Amino acid sequence: MSAEIKKAKAIRTLLFCTTLWGLSFPVMKALALAQQNLLPGADSWFLTALGVMYRFGVAGLILCVIFFSTLKKISRREIEQGIVLGLFGGCGIFFQMDGIGYTAASTCAFLTQGYCVFIPLWVALTHRRWPPLKIFLSTVLVVVGVAILAKLNFNGFKLGRGELETLIASLLFTGQILSLEHPRYATNRPGNFSAVMFLVMALLCVPLVCAMAPSAAACVQAYASLPACGFLAILVVFCTLFAYVLMNHWQKYVTATEAGLIYCIEPVIASLLSLFLPAIFSVWAHIHYPNEQLTARLFLGGGLITAANLLLQSKWLEPGTKIVK
User: Fold this and answer.
1) Domains in the chain: boundaries
2) Choice among 55-59, 167-171, 212-216, 317-321 with the minimum mean pLDDT
3) What pLDDT sits at residue 156?
4) Torsion of CA 55, 58, 60, 64, to 10 degrees
5) C-alpha distance across the termini of the chain, in Å
């Protein structure tokens, strides 16, 4: 398979991964509503930390079973990469979780996508050259599109604790993306370091769960219904196992900058899925979760982000490319 074909397949696969992450937003919202019936008055931070611990812990254990034969011969660099990815991802989630409590959700959503700017800046500094025009234009389209989707109010924007923590989270997510393409880990097996990554992220949540749990029984009661377990299963199988393992395998065939721009389509997918999935989840879980409405904001913001990804996949503005008339 040629490098060009591999790159095209990688882009399609990463778009599929991003779709699965987009699915996680309405699923997590439905799970939170279902848990309000199971544990009335429970702290949202406890439920979030518990969900992350279960989600990545179960996914890690499943990978340990699937890749048992190769994990017996896991290398030091695979362990190292798994720990690095787990620390970047886990700490990023913690800063994002705390930051959203001190700023508007729209501001958090916008700043979280900061890695689409941080990555090309890092590449420009380390390689001492400006990013290609196509990458620059794609980045501008994504930034404007995310700002529109998030309904960002620049007049009320301030750089306080919430904003700073969200930017730190975005920087950590940047490190996670860059770590996947580091030459040091080129020969690592995705199944092995993904298992380590998941378990590290789960272990990071253990102290928070222990500190915030109202009781040991609450850790079980939060998932004491078929819908709650079903939502968790969707998060584990589709949004974690499939999405992350595929990402960990295929991202190396595109640049980190291109990957960051592809991942920014996540809020568009989440918005589109939220047009119809909430009603389905409401019937299944006996919760009140209305569908979102199709708006001009979704058309414009989503259109700009989609245009950026189409530009990214095209040959337009690539060096040496001629337009045939």
Assistant:
1) 3-313
2) 317-321
3) 64
4) -170
5) 30
